[in-house]
């Protein structure tokens, strides 16, 4: 899977989950500090990523995914397809 | 019908209060998944649902085993759709005076009556959060509020459900999922039939409405909390006890 495709799919999920405009989402955006996510939002976001990329993200990994770029990096190195 | 297109999972549904809840929610239009611990009891659930013309299924689920909980919920969601109503009803008693209570009696109650509530709620949460709606209704007990000699374990677990429900209600209120308890008083079921007629008579003296409750009395309260009419009610405990305890 191309990085560009991962990025696009993740931004779409983030936009849907957090109710923000896709154009506002930058790679360096922090879910909590820039996009207004609360703790439950971040849990849901991880659940949505797991579903989208058909993988299971362990809690200790999930805690380290705080920005869009971190999500992209995680998926790029861990998702199977 | 108030609960049309809803899927309700009710634990401990083969008899007593659980069965009455399954039939009532079914009557209101929900598809029903009722759990039991044996094939035979699961089949009885199939049978009474069929007799009442209710869509649904009985399934074997021992709530003491998280793998069975997760597998059962998976099966229900595949055959009936996402679970929108969870009724944690399964429960047991292991009564004893505290001075004589064994660790196993304490642990069995905590596992079956309280830990299962956590594990079942966790397992249905994903679908409910996604749907941005849901109802979790926990069947507590009047003794969780009043205490009862010989039931330190049972009362602790039932009071524990109340604190659990309030906390979860705060966690997921923003997703339009409500979490409430129904606390039955003394209801005429196999569990209370274990009491002697003298004990029953003594109990009734303390019930202003002058009778034991019926499983249907509890089911009606559950159906209300499951319905759209209870949309703005969360974190509360609805007492159904004939007035024997007033909050």
From TrEMBL, chain A:
Q: Which GO terms describe its cellular component?
A: cytosol; membrane
Q: Entry's Pfam families? A: PP-binding (PF00550)
Q: Tell whether Cytoplasm is among the UniProt keywords.
A: yes
Q: Where's it found, cell-wise?
A: Cytoplasm
UniProt keyword Iron-sulfur present = no
Give the primary localization class. cytoplasm
Q: In which pathway does it act?
A: Lipid metabolism; fatty acid biosynthesis; Glycolipid biosynthesis; KDO(2)-lipid A biosynthesis
Q: How is it modified after translation?
A: 4'-phosphopantetheine is transferred from CoA to a specific serine of apo-ACP by acpS. 4'-phosphopantetheine is transferred from CoA to a specific serine of apo-ACP by AcpS. This modification is essential for activity because fatty acids are bound in thioester linkage to the sulfhydryl of the prosthetic group.
Q: Which GO terms describe its biological process?
A: Kdo2-lipid A biosynthetic process; lipid A biosynthetic process
Residues bearing PTM O-(pantetheine 4'-phosphoryl)serine: 39
The Carrier domain extends over 4-79
Gene Ontology molecular-function annotations: acyl binding; acyl carrier activity
Top-level division of the source organism's lineage: Bacteria
Which PROSITE patterns does this UniProt record tie to the protein? CARRIER, PHOSPHOPANTETHEINE
Which of UniProt's keywords are assigned here?
Cytoplasm, Fatty acid biosynthesis, Fatty acid metabolism, Lipid biosynthesis, Lipid metabolism, Phosphopantetheine, Phosphoprotein
The role this protein plays is: Carrier of the growing fatty acid chain in fatty acid biosynthesis.
Q: Return the similarity comment.
A: Belongs to the acyl carrier protein (ACP) family.
Q: What is the protein name for this chain?
A: Acyl carrier protein
TrEMBL record, chain B:
The UniProt annotation places NADP(+) binding at: 12-15, 37, 89, 154-158, 187
Family matches, as PROSITE patterns: ADH_SHORT (PS00061)
The protein's Enzyme Commission number: 1.1.1.100
Q: Which residues form a coiled coil?
A: none
Using the UniProt record, name the top-level EC class of this enzyme in a single word: oxidoreductase
| Keyword NADP included in the entry's annotation | yes
What the entry lists under CDD domains is as follows:
BKR_SDR_c
Taxonomically, the superkingdom here is: Bacteria
Q: Which Pfam families match?
A: adh_short_C2
Query: Where is the signal peptide, in residue numbers?
Result: none
GO molecular function terms here?
A: 3-oxoacyl-[acyl-carrier-protein] reductase (NADPH) activity; NAD binding
User: What InterPro entries does the annotation carry?
Assistant: 3oxo_ACP_reduc, KR_dom, NAD(P)-bd_dom_sf, Sc_DH/Rdtase_CS, SDR, SDR_fam
Entry's SMART domains? Answer: PKS_KR
Its biological function?
A: Catalyzes the NADPH-dependent reduction of beta-ketoacyl-ACP substrates to beta-hydroxyacyl-ACP products, the first reductive step in the elongation cycle of fatty acid biosynthesis.
Q: What is this protein called?
A: 3-oxoacyl-[acyl-carrier-protein] reductase
Q: What species does this protein belong to?
A: Nitrosomonas halophila
């Amino acid at each position: 899977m191309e990085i560009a495709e991962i990025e696009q799919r993740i931004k779409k999920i983030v936009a849907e989950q957090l109710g923000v405009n896709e154009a506002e989402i930058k790679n360096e955006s922090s879910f909590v500090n820039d996009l207004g996510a609360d703790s439950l939002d971040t849990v849901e976001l991880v659940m949505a990523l797991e579903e989208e990329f058909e993988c299971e993200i362990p809690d200790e990994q999930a805690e380290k995914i705080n920005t869009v770029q971190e999500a992209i990096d995680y998926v790029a190195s861990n998702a199977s397809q | 019908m108030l609960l049309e297109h809803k899927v309700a999972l009710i634990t401990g549904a083969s008899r007593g209060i659980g069965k009455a809840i399954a039939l009532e929610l079914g009557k209101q239009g929900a598809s029903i998944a009722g759990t039991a611990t044996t094939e035979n009891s699961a089949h009885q659930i199939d049978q009474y649902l069929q007799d009442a013309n209710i869509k649904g299924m009985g399934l074997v689920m021992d709530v003491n085993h998280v793998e069975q909980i997760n597998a059962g919920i998976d099966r229900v969601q595949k055959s009936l759709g996402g679970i929108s109503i969870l009724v944690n009803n399964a429960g047991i008693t292991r009564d004893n005076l505290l001075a004589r209570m064994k660790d196993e009696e304490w642990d069995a109650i905590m596992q079956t009556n309280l830990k299962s509530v956590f594990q079942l709620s966790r397992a249905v949460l994903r679908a409910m959060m996604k749907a941005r709606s849901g109802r979790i209704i926990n069947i507590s007990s009047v003794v969780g509020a009043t205490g009862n000699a010989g039931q330190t374990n049972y009362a602790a677990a039932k009071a524990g459900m109340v604190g659990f429900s309030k906390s979860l209600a705060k966690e997921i209120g923003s997703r339009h999922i409500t979490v409430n308890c129904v606390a039955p008083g003394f209801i005429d079921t196999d569990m209370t039939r274990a009491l002697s007629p003298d004990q029953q008579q003594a109990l009734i003296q303390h019930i202003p409405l002058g009778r034991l409750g019926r499983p249907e009395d509890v089911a009606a309260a559950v159906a209300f909390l499951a319905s759209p009419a209870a949309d703005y009610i969360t974190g509360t405990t609805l007492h159904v006890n004939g007035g024997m305890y007033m909050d």
